[in-house]
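Retry 2 of 3 after timeout on previous attempt. Resubmitting C-alpha cells to design endpoint.
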C-alpha cells in the first residue's frame, strides 16, 4: 500500500514523500523467505509462515520535468521486514531486516494521435 504527498516547487520540480506497507500471503513468504529442510540455519524443521504485513517503510522522490513529455525521477526508499519474513533463517544468516533502495527513472509521453 502506498500513500504519497506531492509538492510542486515550480514548473520543473516536484517533490514527493510517503509511507509504504507491503502485505503478503503465506505462500509468498514461504517461497521467498523459506528454506529447505535440513539446510544450514533451519535445524531441519519445516517453518510455518503466516500471511500479513511483510514490510513497512517510506519513500522520498524528486521529479524534474525537462519538457511537457519528458521527465526524470530520483528516489530513495527504506523498507523494514517484519513478521515471519524478518525471522527467516535466510534473513538472519545472509541479509538484514532493513534495506535502502536508490533509483532513477525516466519517462516519455508519446502522442499517438488518437
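Retry 2 succeeded. Sequence:
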Amino acid at each position: 500500500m502506498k500513500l504519497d504527498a506531492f509538492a510542486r516547487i515550480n514548473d520543473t520540480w516536484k517533490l514527493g514523500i510517503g509511507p509504504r506497507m507491503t502485505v503478503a500471503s503465506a505462500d509468498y513468504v514461504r517461497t521467498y523467505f523459506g528454506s529447505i529442510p535440513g539446510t544450514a540455519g533451519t535445524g531441519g524443521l519445516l517453518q510455518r509462515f503466516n500471511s500479513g504485513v511483510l514490510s513497512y517503510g517510506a519513500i522520498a522522490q524528486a521529479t524534474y520535468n525537462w519538457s511537457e513529455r519528458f521527465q526524470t525521477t530520483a528516489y530513495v526508499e527504506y523498507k523494514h521486514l517484519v513478521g515471519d519474513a524478518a525471522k527467516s533463517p535466510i534473513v538472519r544468516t545472509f541479509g538484514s531486516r532493513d534495506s535502502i533502495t536508490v533509483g532513477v527513472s525516466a519517462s516519455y509521453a508519446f502522442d499517438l494521435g488518437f
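Attempt log closed. The mean pLDDT is 88.
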